[in-house]
Write a structure and sequence with these properties.
Layout lengths: L4 H62 L11 H15 L1 H5 L2 E4 L5 E4 L1 H6 L5 H8 L4 E7 L2 E12 L2 E11 L1 H48 L18 H49 L5 H29 L11 E4 H18 L3 E6 L5 E4 L1 H18 L5 E9 L2 E8 L17 E3 L8 E3 H12 L3 E6 L5 E8 L3
Helix pairs in contact: 1-6, 7-8, 8-11, 9-10, 10-11
Length: about 475
């Protein structure tokens, strides 16, 4: 049989109930047996006391009727006492009333006994006789004709003197028959209850796990191509609802990861296609015929530039692929923002000059220090400047302004390019955003802007954009100042 939660729950339920029923049955049987035994002993003690009281009442009545001077019962001579007991038995017929009675002298010799007691032949054991000498009542069990008999031996004491011993016996057969019937019923009750329990437990487990079966069925229908589907969340407020919500959250993370992988693959192939095509063309052209050293050197330099460009693309791709991994490995330090931006501007000055674009920095605040990762901040402003230069036509300008607003550092990158349409603005910071403009005949993956937003958010800041077609664009990076 295939193990399942339903089967396991039913098995555990059955095992626990079996233990409980067995323990309850044992406790019930033991309690009833003990109660019966105690009741038998109480009845025997009561009958023994009744016999002793009857003898005393008979003596007292005889003394009164004879008109003799009253003598205390304990002062009576032993032979007189035994004669009294015999006379009491003959006159009252109490032996027929008690049926299972025998009276003995302190030494254990029978004075009188009923016919049944004489027929049973129950002995006075040495241990019982010894106990009575210590004024103790003794209970003993005997086996008579395959039946168990309970007998009490009680000394009758007056003025610290043992006058005689009273023995009362009782058959335990009624009690044993009752206990046998109880035992049989319990033995039938336990299996019957367990059978009903198995059926009930199986039905309860099936009903309780039915939502889990639905979750399993829905989960099996979700594949790599349908990660947008979600598990139906039951409004039960229990663990099943939490399980469905957790599973849906996991699907969301998987969907995001798969989407990032697809975007990463598309971006890598797209961005690397152009430099690889240039390199291949240059190398094929150089190999068509023998060329001079200067020509080979030019080809090598061109390929080196392409390799550098591809290295930068790969670095940004890897940076984007790790944007969800946290910031624990970053090296935080105070960085002078004015100096850092000036260094970045200087690295792009030759490119701006070759395009006829004015690239200037205006520091409205003076020295401004922020706490951050210098390498990431360099990538942030390098991407913004590179993006501005890419979209600014010949003769235009790119201006960087450093200022402060409400205790925060603000860096604005303004260009005089073609601008961004209103419908494209909400998506330009998405990872691997693909845009197409009139000035570009080919598509371009917006790796830099997606990375810029992530870097700003890592530094507890944000990045904003304001633009309209034909009016240029302004990107504002807002970073918190150290407290």
């Amino acid at each position: 049989m295939i193990r399942s939660i339903r089967f396991t729950l039913t098995l555990w339920y059955l095992a626990i109930l079996t233990v409980i029923l067995c323990a309850f049955s044992w406790m019930l049987y033991t309690s009833v047996s003990h109660t019966f035994s105690r009741d038998v002993d109480d009845v025997l003690a009561l009958q023994a006391d009744s016999a002793a009281d009857a003898v005393f009442a008979f003596w007292k009545a005889g003394e009164k009727n004879d008109g003799k001077k009253f003598r205390p019962f304990e002062k009576i001579e032993p032979h007189e006492l035994y004669n009294l007991i015999s006379h009491w038995a003959d006159e009252t017929g109490e032996l027929e009333t008690f049926k299972y009675v025998r009276i003995l002298d302190p030494e254990g010799s029978a004075v009188i006994q009923s016919e049944i007691m004489e027929a049973w032949g129950l002995p006075l054991t040495k241990s019982a006789l010894l106990e009575t000498r210590y004024r103790r009542t003794v209970y003993e069990n005997f086996l008579v004709s395959s039946r168990r008999v309970r007998m009490i031996t009680r000394p009758v004491i007056e003025a610290n003197r043992i006058l005689y011993l009273v023995q009362i016996a009782s058959s335990l057969q009624p009690m044993e028959e009752t206990l046998d019937r109880l035992r049989v019923r319990l033995l039938w009750l336990i299996p019957g209850t367990l059978l009903v329990t198995i059926a009930g437990g199986w039905l309860l487990a099936t009903a309780a796990l039915r939502p889990v079966a639905r979750i399993i069925d829905q989960a099996q229908r979700i594949g790599a191509e349908s990660l947008d589907k979600r598990i139906e969340v039951p409004s039960t407020g229990d663990e099943l609802e939490r399980l469905s919500e957790t599973f849906n959250a996991m699907l969301t993370r998987l969907e995001r990861t798969f989407k990032r992988m697809r975007q990463f693959s598309a971006a890598a192939s797209h961005e690397l296609r152009t430099p690889l095509t240039v390199m291949r063309g240059e190398l094929e052209l150089a190999l068509r015929r023998t060329r001079d050293v200067e020509e080979y050197q030019r080809v090598i330099e061109t390929n080196l530039e392409m390799v550098k460009e591809m290295s930068g693309i790969v670095e940004q791709l890897l940076m984007l692929s790790r944007t969800g991994e946290g910031t624990e490995t970053l090296e935080w330090q105070l960085t002078d923002l004015g100096t850092l931006i000036e260094e970045v501007r200087h690295s792009f000055s030759s490119i701006a000059e070759s395009k006829g674009i004015s690239l200037e920095v205006y520091n409205m605040k003076g020295p401004v220090a922020v706490r951050g990762e210098k390498r990431l901040l360099e990538i942030l402003f390098s991407n913004l400047i590179q993006n501005a230069l890419r979209h600014t036509p010949f003769g235009g300008s790119v201006i960087l302004e450093i200022g402060e607003d409400e205790g925060q550092c603000c860096v604005a990158v303004r260009d005089t390019g073609e601008g961004i349409s209103e419908k494209e603005i909400p998506g330009i910071f998405n990872k691997f955003f693909r845009e197409k403009t009139a000035l570009q005949s080919s598509d371009s993956i917006g790796l830099g802007l997606g990375l810029c937003r992530w870097i700003a958010e890592v530094h507890q800041g944000k990045i904003e954009v304001a633009s309209s077609p034909g009016m240029g664009a302004t990107f504002r990076v807002i970073l918190p100042l150290p407290g």
